[in-house]
Amino acid sequence: MSEVKRTEVGQPHAERTTGKTKRVLVIGKGGREHALCWALSRSPRVERVFCAPGNAGTAQLGRNVALEPSDFKGLARFARHEEIDLVVIGPEEPLCQGLADHLRDQGLKVFGPSAEAAELEGSKLFAKDLMKQAGIPTAEAKVFDNAKDAETYVLSREVMLTIRPRNHHSIRQASSCRTAADCLEMINAVFDPRDYPNPALEVEIIGRNQKQVFRKGPEAREFVLRQPLGLVVKADGLAAGKGVEVCDDFRSALDAIQRIMVRREFGKAGDKILIEERLEGPEASVLALTDGRTIAPFDIAQDFKRAFDNDEGPNTGGMGAYSPTTKLITPEVMARIEEQVLVPAVHFMKKRRRPFQGVLYAGLILTEQGPKVLEFNVRFGDPECQVLLPRLKSDLYDLLEAVVEERLEEVELQWDTRASVCVTLVSEGYPGPFEKDKAISGLEEAARLPDVLVFHAGTKTNHEGRVLTDGGRVLNVVGLGDTLAQARDRAYQAAALIRFQGRRYRSDIALHAVEHG
User: Fold this and answer.
1) pTM of the complete model beyond 0.85
2) First CA to last CA across the chain, in angstroms?
């Protein structure tokens, strides 16, 4: 990684005043798209950046276009009319729906995979099957298309409790239960006079280092369901980064099945689910450009999915990130990831006649047995994009154009040696229901701080030009520094200056990495 001359973050490259000829359309409206617009606008080759539909931040870099990613015909018509040289698709949903294919059919240059290739993210079933066929290390998973079978599988997991029914006159023989289902059946029996002529007044449940007496069946059953369990429940389809439930006990696994398959919180994405063993270890995000033949990995980032400090609470689209993660992934580990994950994934997509061009994102967990894939994404990560692009020295337009023209081997990714930390400011209630239209203050003060960038994720402007909240994730505040600690301090200093009603953010982004080197 080479050194870079220090310049004020956010200022254009020195050579930007010459040779600007290209017009770019970025599709999307989040923090990732703002970061993409920012990086592309700094290219000496880019004349103008458009963003559809964009947000209050992208409007400061170019022109927002009132077209949604689902408006395939409108986007194609606009791109042809404005003589767009390159379309960059940010979100996963339009990619999976075939937007890249539609625009290419209209003769446009598009950065983003085809719908067939995007199924690598659009269907976790497809991704698991590909990983199995390609020998890519990942967790074993079982697939279910109805809630009843999924719940039966969860309750069949080992629990190892002993149940002893008791009443005033005697203590009955204890019964050992190997599974949660066995325990629940026994509890139901001892509290039901139809099964026990002399029903139990209480039941004692004995486990490893625990013993508790219950006088009511529901309480005893809930105790069993709160026993530790290491499973992950995943909706098969797209769920805006929220269709994955990491379950610490039987109750949370059963609740996840109900939410996804019965209450249909993620719609058709929950037609099928995967249940897999929970893997242990630190997580990391590996993104790589590929034109279907050459693979050019980005520097490594780590994101934070859980809503609250100490990785507690529900999964979100991403509460923050940092880069690089040199202590987490050594060059030797990275070489292993390329060999065992990236290369076979690109190879097998080509073998299945779904050649992949764009950004291949591997969400990894670093287990004691080595790196294993949690999921594949087919676009820039959000918020990983927001910490990677400010560190990218290479011209982003050159890189994306090389992917589209299948000549990625001609370009090189160069990186700023500084660290970057992103802190995401969210609306109260996120990732659940939240209110919009809250006035935001402090944006200019935060942006004036040295080595700070503020990317808009869910914002809009009103008729008075005031910036308002317009999403669950509102802003991505990024700090850069010579050390990770310095970058973190700058990000949090800037985040503290920004205010809106209900504003919330995690206070521990990159903290463990700073404290433990």
Assistant:
1) yes
2) 19
Predicted local confidence at residue 203, as pLDDT: 82
For residue range 349-375, list pLDDT tens digits in order.
999 999 999 999 999 999 999 999 999
**CA distance linking residue 295 with residue 300, whole number of Å:** 15
Strands 63-64 and 46-53: parallel
The DSSP H or E segment spanning 323 is: strand 320-323
Answer whether 478's CB lies under 8 Å from 422's CB.
yes
Q: Do 341 and 371 form a contact (C-beta atoms < 8 A)?
A: yes
User: Are residues 30 and 91 in contact, defined by beta-carbon separation less than 8 angstroms?
Assistant: yes
Q: Give me the sheet containing 273-277, strands edge to edge.
A: 141-144, 273-277, 228-235, 244-249
The three-state DSSP-derived secondary structure of 296-322 is: EECCCEEECCEEEHHHEEEECCCCEEE
Helix, strand or coil, per DSSP, at residue 343 = helix
Residue 366, token pair as written in the block: 């670093």
Cβ neighbour number for residue 299 with a 10 Å cutoff: 21
Q: Quick: pLDDT tens for 237-260.
A: 987 767 888 899 999 999 999 999
Quick one: tokens of 410?
Answer: 């001609």
Element (H, E) at 32: helix 31-41
Using a 10 angstrom Cβ sphere, with 0-12 exposed, 13-18 middle and 19 or more buried, the burial of residue 17 is exposed
Contact of 150 with 386, CB cutoff 8 Å: no
Give the Cα-Cα-Cα angle 197, 198, 202 (nearest 5 degrees): 135
SS3 string, 60-126, reads HCCEECCCCCCCHHHHHHHHHHCCCCEEEECCHHHHHHCHHHHHHHCCCCEECCCHHHHHHHHCHHH
Cα–Cα nearest to 355, from 300, 297, 403, 286: 403
Task: Work out whether the CA dihedral 10, 11, 13, 18 comes out positive or negative.
Answer: positive
Distance of alpha carbon 50 from the chain centroid: 25
The single residue listed with the structure tokens 């609740």 is 255
